[in-house]
Amino acid sequence: MNYEIKQYDKFRFLEEGEGEPLLLLHGLFGALSNFSDLVEHFRKQYKVIVPLLPLFDLDIFHTTVGGFEKYIQRFIEVREYDQIHLLGNSLGGHVALLHVLKHPERIKSLILTGSSGLFENGMGDTYPKRGDYEYIRKKSELTFYDPAKATKELVDEVFEITNNRLKVIKIISLAKSAIRNNLGEEVSQIKQPTLLIWGNNDTITPPFVAKEFNRLIPNSELYFIDKCGHAPMMEVPGEFNKILESFLTKLKQPAATVV
């Protein structure tokens, strides 16, 4: 995916296509490449936006779920986006949830996939080990149903991050922030139409998490994808895009007229 990374004010982001904004938030070890198939598919009908979250650029006190929510709020205000379809994967879903609860006015719909916010098991019982490539490879493979999806390129990217002492400190800070910032019953206040797309084999935010989101968020619908882990938009992009397109198309249709 060779799209131009734009710079506006202090924000770096990808923006492709025209139409209603479809704003995508990546996870803790995420990157633009996570959304390559999604961007390519939806840029024909929507303005697809992927901000680069400053995972390692904020000071340690703002390297939190709340700190990133404030960053996204400023980004949306500066760019004057409105009627946004807000999609988040993993930590990005958590940030999206917090944003909708705090600033619902510009959000038209919410899409969550493998989102934290109620429960997540991203680190398991251990935290990233510096210099241990095999550990990082195994952790990366756990993201997917098919371990082969954890390519050498992807593992190398994660290894480079976890080999930096300051970045590891910030990763741990973020992971702990996600656990502390458990939204629980709060998510029942969300009024936007919400789509939940989950991997049936997600071990980081298991299927019971999706069912709990579905139970708590009033106007939500849930779809499971078999043989799929924590990042459905990467592992099964065709099926993911089909479910998302159907959801967005329904939102475009005018409400039925009551006679």
Jot down its keywords.
Rossmann fold; 259 residues; alpha/beta; hydrolase activity; hydrolase; 8 strands; AB_hydrolase_sf; single chain; eight-stranded mixed sheet; AB_hydrolase_1; AB_hydrolase_fold; 17% strand
Q: Can you describe this structure?
A:
The chain is an alpha/beta fold. It has a single domain, classed as 3-Layer(aba) Sandwich (Rossmann fold). Helices cover 39% and strands 17% of the residues. The protein contains nine helices and eight strands. The protein has helices at 36-42, 65-79, 91-102, 133-141, 152-162, 165-180, 207-216, 232-235, 237-252; strands at 5-8, 11-16, 21-25, 47-51, 84-89, 107-113, 194-199, 220-225. The protein has an eight-stranded mixed β-sheet with strand order 1-2-4-3-5-6-7-8, with helices on both faces. The radius of gyration is 17 Å and the shape is globular. The N and C termini lie far apart (49 Å). The model has no long low-confidence stretch (mean pLDDT 88).
